[in-house]
Amino acid sequence: MKFHKKRMLAALCAAAAVSAMSAVPAMADPLSELRIWGPVTVNSENQLTIDNQSQQSYTGEVVIHLSEDTKILNAASGMPVAADQLPSGETVYAYLSPVMTLSLPPQTTADVILTQIPADYRVPDYIEVKSFEAADGGYQLTAADGLVFQVSSDCPISPYLTRNMLYLENLYPGARCLVWSDGTTASRIMMFQPYGPEESGSEDTVQPHIQTGWVLESGEAGTASAQWLYYNPDGTLAKGWVEDGGKWYFLNLETGRMERGFVQVEGKTYYMQEDGSMLTGPRTFTPAADGSLS
Questions:
Q1: Do residues 215 and 231 make contact, with C-beta atoms less than 8 angstroms apart?
Q2: For the purposes of burial, counting CB atoms within 10 Å of the CB of 34, is it exposed (0-12), middle (13-18) or buried (19 or more)?
Q3: At a CB cut-off of 8 Å and minimum separation 6, what does 125 contact?
Q4: Residue 81 near residue 95, CB atoms below 8 Å
């Protein structure tokens, strides 16, 4: 604990040397070991205040400035969560820049924030890969912060918000991932872009294959429970309007999920049918007893 306090003090001094107290430093490289957790006390525009209870850095309130690069993720699924869905009292885990301002409370930025954590759930580790080597019929994944995971040869690995076909061999030193585990054995890995080192043209690099089009995220196809996503030709997640097969679909601007029912877009109302396609012909809607339309 004394070591962490000394390290934090050094980080605070570094912040004073390179920036004015009101400035918010950029994310440091390589990945910091400063992971904090605690309840959200304030959620205002583009920033969160967390009451840090981790005992691994500055104890008490820490202000985290959010940017377009900050990933707020569901701890169980790894899917993005909108910042306005973090209510006061919600416990989150945040991976912080090691550089903070000298203000009280200290201010910093975060690379990843994990939220919507189920009870008694082991939160995944956000890591930078140091090495990934064959071992005992599987692999050993060593993180830059010293964590070590045993990885079976059939451990699932998936990309973040793209449909690239990834293999465990795509992991390389410097890659950043979320690793779900029991503390020693990985059960699932999610990899963030880029999916290969800068020398990706080398013959030794396994290149990911991009899958595009409609992908069933959850539920059963052909039922109201089906949650559909659409991936562009470059593998990125589509949002907003998408034309496919002569029909128009609207994908949620936050999650990318296909919308059904009435949607409001730029002041206009549209009706998306059960298959997600936009209604273009006449249809009669009968209000329910409470006056609602569906």
A1: yes
A2: buried
A3: 143, 147, 178, 179, 181
A4: no
Task: Give all domains of the chain, ordered by start, each with its CATH number.
Answer: 35-115 (2.40.50), 125-191 (no CATH), 213-272 (2.10.270.10)
Question: Which DSSP letter does residue 185 get?
Answer: B
DSSP state at residue 162 = B
Hey, what amino acid is at 49?
A: T
pLDDT in tens, 122-148: 999 999 999 999 988 899 999 999 999
DSSP for 37-103 reads EEEEEEEETTEEEEEE-SSSS--EEEEEE--TT-EEEETTT--B--GGG--TT-EEEEEE-S---SS
Residue type, 152: S
Q: How far is CA 212 from the centre of its chain?
A: 20
* Distance in angstroms (rounded) separating the CA atoms of residues 94 and 54: 10
pLDDT in tens, 163-185: 778 889 899 999 999 999 999 99
